[in-house]
From TrEMBL:
This is Uncharacterized protein.
């Protein structure tokens, strides 16, 4: 009769009793699902996600805004590293669901290996430019040379279409070597 009067199920009453006993006081704790997550907690999660190097595909940069993480990573691995990071910082780590939500909703990241490799110089300039503007001129020159080479390639393609007796060849000699597989958490932050 009591359960029907309050429109409660037996399971709900049991959960409330268990939570009341666990709290030590005579009152069950507030529902944690509706609680606001402080911005400082979200900032720690954002900071941790930003610690992982992200790469833009060099050759398809004009066609997409996708940014890639190391394909050996996953959100679950990053969360385990986040827990270690929180221990080092003496901060209470939050749950994986909050970490995952922040990763998915706030960052345009993918773990899929990009179909096109990245240019080592562009990657280096991008990292250095985050901390200093010393290489800004060199970066612009490098990008201009890349643009000129693409223009020459486009002209060669047009030449072949216009003249069947012509042969052109194009080679990509800037193959990037992939980083060895590193499972150490500290290696991801270096």
């Amino acid at each position: 009769m009591f359960l029907n009067t309050l429109c409660l199920g037996l399971k709900k009453v049991r959960v409330i009793i268990v939570k009341k006993r666990m709290s030590g006081s005579g009152v069950a704790p507030e529902n944690a699902r509706a609680r606001h997550i402080p911005e400082c907690v979200k900032d720690i999660i954002r900071k941790h996600i930003k610690m992982f190097p992200a790469y833009v595909s060099h050759y398809s940069r004009a066609h997409t805004q996708n940014v890639y993480q190391n394909p050996d990573l996953s959100i679950a691995k990053m969360f385990r590293l986040y827990q270690d990071y929180c221990k080092e910082q003496s901060v209470l780590p939050r749950n994986e669901a909050l970490y995952r939500k922040s990763f998915v909703e706030e960052f345009n990241l993918s773990f899929k290996k990009p179909k096109n490799d990245t240019c080592g110089k562009c990657d280096r300039y991008e990292l250095v430019l985050k901390f200093s503007k010393d290489v800004e001129k060199e970066n612009k020159i490098h990008l201009e040379l890349a643009k000129l080479s693409y223009e020459e390639k486009r002209k060669d393609k047009l030449l072949i279409k216009a003249n069947c007796n012509c042969i052109t060849m194009s080679f990509d000699l800037q193959k990037c070597l992939s980083t060895p597989l590193l499972m150490s958490g500290a290696a991801f932050y270096e």
